[in-house]
């Protein structure tokens, strides 16, 4: 997502930074390019217009034109404007302050990812907020819909409302709330029926359910891949039933990102969450400042750390951290680390979250470097070493290297490469050690 927009914007700023002092014409020309890049990314026209006007106004201020690195100054202004367009800094949390059971109403078109998202939210509230969640499907249109939600709930380890054939949506919603009250649920997620297109009957149904349950949230699920259509859908749902937030699904796809950038301006509703995959864990808070950072290739360190802390085995990483701090990190630990990184998913995906790594990511992808294969090879090399060699890599001299290469079906060169990488890593760790944890935190939050 955002890849092409990101690439084009980087190009604009690179052009600016080569120029030294900027004239108004330079800024105007840059804004033309930004405008084209945004239109190309499917951002809604009024949003683009408003965006470039804002940036131009701020950029032609004397500050930028006279500043030492005007390219950077403009990039900062664009960054701020992106954050504004995405809804302002900070994720907007789900409303959890209402008296229990808190009803959440899920609305959206069929195929938008609504049912999956309902399950994802249920899992998230269960695991992170320690809430007791009940899922209920109000979809009596598609015969298998209620069953689908029930199975999803089972996969998520969350309760779902028993199915009573023949009940109508409003009755089901009332029953869900009743069960919620009686059995002490904190949150009741009501998954309404989706349609292929917006029709009056669907809107009326949503309004009826809403009147019967007074939901704390009416969350619209839209598919980021549908671009402008997602924004139109949101606008119409908002006018017809009023939404309190948007969940944008399929943010993991190669959508051009325009929907995310237009949503707030067109509907007034914040994007609260983003779906990033088919798995039930693939749901993230939507942080405009992080998304803006990704668009501008500034990386998303905070997101990376969060993802890492969710995926990586806590006990194991604490053990590794302790060994690092004690300066006792060896090749066995290195192997364990590789296994952990593998768990994080594609390496190029991780690179995309690191500042300035966007380009490297492109290179990796264009050359089709198979990082999983590299890791596999490294693990094979390490497992061909003796225990002593893994503990004290310094003893690995020429003859040992030959033996290890033969044993792992690699070459001495590859063994050298691994040892060098391990060495580099040890150096970085020593640096981090010197900085101390405080310095580390400062770096990550700064
Ligand atoms: P509904 O008709 O709106 O309830 O849509 P579903 O929840 O049944 O989802 C339709 C398809 O989209 C399913 O195959 C989901 O696995 C998939 N899906 C949902 N959310 C995401 C997402 O964030 N990323 C990806 N890649 N797929 C998703």
Number of domains: 3
The N- and C-terminal alpha carbons lie at a distance of: 25 Å
CATH superfamily of the largest domain: P-loop containing nucleotide triphosphate hydrolases
Q: Estimate the mean pLDDT confidence.
A: 83
Please provide a written account of the structure.
The protein has 446 residues and is of the alpha/beta class. The chain folds into three domains: 83 residues, SRP54, nucleotide-binding domain (Four Helix Bundle (Hemerythrin (Met), subunit A), Up-down Bundle); 197 residues, Rossmann fold, CATH 3.40.50; 135 residues, 434 Repressor (Amino-terminal Domain) (Orthogonal Bundle). It has 21 helices and eight strands. It has an eight-stranded mixed beta sheet with strand order 3-2-4-1-5-6-7-8, sandwiched between helices. A hairpin with a 7-residue loop joins strand 7 and strand 8. Helix 1 packs antiparallel against helix 5. The longest helix is centred in the last third of the chain and has 34 residues. It is flat. Guanosine-5'-diphosphate (GDP) binds next to helix 6. The site of guanosine-5'-diphosphate has 17 residues, from helix 6.
